[in-house]
Amino acid sequence: MPLIPRATRTPPAPVPVDLGRVMLVGTALWLVALAVCTVLAAVGTATWMPVWVCLAGIATGAFGWDWARRHRTTPPDVAPPA
């Protein structure tokens, strides 16, 4: 019995995705989480640690968005094929 089974069919083609848009949506969600965590920390319900985690998520998303923008394979005005 082999450890790695042989592929019986070819894998599907990768789906074209605009990574810049994915990074912006993720960063926007971190911004919403930051607002919620800041309010909770300000009223004393939570500690300030989640606020720092949200800030790290926003920073990571900003770096990811910049990377996706610089490594874009299609021009921004061309839509991927449906």
Automatic annotation (TrEMBL):
<feature type="transmembrane region" description="Helical">
    <location>
        <begin position="21"/>
        <end position="43"/>
    </location>
</feature>
<keyword id="KW-0812">Transmembrane</keyword>
<feature type="transmembrane region" description="Helical">
    <location>
        <begin position="49"/>
        <end position="68"/>
    </location>
</feature>
<protein>
    <recommendedName>
        <fullName>DUF2530 domain-containing protein</fullName>
    </recommendedName>
</protein>
<keyword id="KW-0472">Membrane</keyword>
<keyword id="KW-1133">Transmembrane helix</keyword>
